Write a sequence for this structure.
């Protein structure tokens, strides 16, 4: 049997050993397919949530527009405890109206499983997640079950998984995680596409060849207002287009990773590092910005030993492009999962940032 696929951050699949403990060893041996393992894990959650629905689900908690936190005594605390107990997200049997340390721990766990800021406080975002109805959650799980069936039979030996709603990627080799990274994805108006590709080459210290849409919508109006705009932003006209020169000012940072596709999408570094501190990271024009570009380069170039960390950092800091073609095959899978099981067998939800769940889109 294959080794466990441990997706701690993206969490699309459960650990195989976890699923064996849940009584699906025969299915794993028979199918050998991640897609059916993924589907089965969510199917078990559908059954659990349908049972919750059959006994009445849960009531909405009426919020008083005040954050509730450790040490507070509030009638809403009892309702929060009850809501968590219905979905088995607390071990405590306490019915107290005092917000204690145990409840704070439970709230942090809930926040992490829902892609929220894990501060242990119950504010608007956490209340909104608690108040999503059981029927909405069932529908969410169902559409993600169907997405499982769209997964490939074989991911390959070396690949990168991106889960758009989780704002995360993970690099895998021989079905073991090598590194993970926060990512920034496209805004609702510039959605990151869902597809698969093959990573082919890396460009260190890249020019940013500004797409025509950005040029006409943003750059040309800025030039009209400020004639010195191009020079101030290290930009220049080249072959009838505008590009930004390599350097610390460049919007692509020190490196971009190219997997040719019909969407003109790629992964790249960014000088705007503070945006990775945001919980919801949909800021780009569609390309994927990554927090760990050096780790990505090391991962992709692990069969070209001359490209060590020192050489990569040096190439990224140059003001001249360097193109390096990859020797081995690395697949890239850009996925969209808003419900998934983590390696501990826990159900996670993420916000449907592109509205695909609502439309039943895979």
């Amino acid at each position: 049997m294959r080794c466990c696929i441990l997706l701690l951050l993206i969490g699309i699949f459960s650990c195989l050993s976890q699923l064996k403990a849940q009584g699906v060893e025969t299915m794993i041996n028979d199918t050998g397919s991640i897609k059916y393992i993924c589907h089965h894990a969510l199917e078990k959650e559908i059954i659990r949530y349908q049972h919750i629905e059959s006994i009445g689900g849960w009531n909405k908690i009426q919020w008083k527009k005040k954050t509730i936190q450790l040490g507070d005594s509030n009638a809403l605390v009892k309702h929060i405890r009850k809501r968590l107990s219905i979905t088995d997200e607390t071990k405590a049997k306490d019915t107290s109206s005092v917000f204690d340390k145990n409840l704070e721990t439970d709230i942090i766990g809930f926040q992490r499983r829902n892609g929220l800021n894990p501060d242990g406080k119950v504010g608007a975002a956490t209340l909104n997640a608690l108040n999503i109805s059981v029927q909405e959650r069932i529908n969410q799980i169902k559409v993600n079950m169907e997405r499982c069936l769209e997964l490939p039979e074989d991911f390959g030996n070396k690949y990168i998984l991106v889960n758009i709603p989780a704002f995360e990627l993970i690099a895998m080799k021989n079905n073991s995680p090598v590194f993970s990274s926060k990512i920034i994805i496209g805004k609702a108006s510039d959605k990151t596409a869902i597809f698969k590709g093959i990573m082919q080459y890396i460009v260190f210290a890249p020019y940013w060849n500004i797409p025509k849409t950005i040029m006409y919508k943003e750059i040309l109006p800025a030039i009209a207002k400020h004639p010195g705009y191009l020079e101030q932003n290290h930009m220049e006209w080249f072959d009838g287009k505008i590009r930004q020169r390599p350097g610390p000012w460049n919007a692509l940072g020190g490196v971009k990773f190219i997997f040719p596709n019909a969407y003109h999408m790629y992964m790249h570094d960014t000088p705007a590092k503070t945006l990775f501190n945001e919980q919801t990271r949909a800021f780009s024009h569609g390309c994927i910005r990554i927090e760990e570009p050096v780790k990505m380069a090391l991962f992709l170039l692990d069969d070209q030993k001359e490209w060590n960390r020192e050489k990569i950092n040096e190439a990224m800091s140059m003001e001249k492009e360097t193109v390096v073609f990859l020797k081995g095959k690395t697949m890239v899978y850009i996925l969209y999962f808003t419900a998934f099981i983590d390696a501990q067998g826990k159900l996670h939800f993420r916000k449907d940032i592109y509205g695909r769940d609502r439309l039943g889109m895979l």
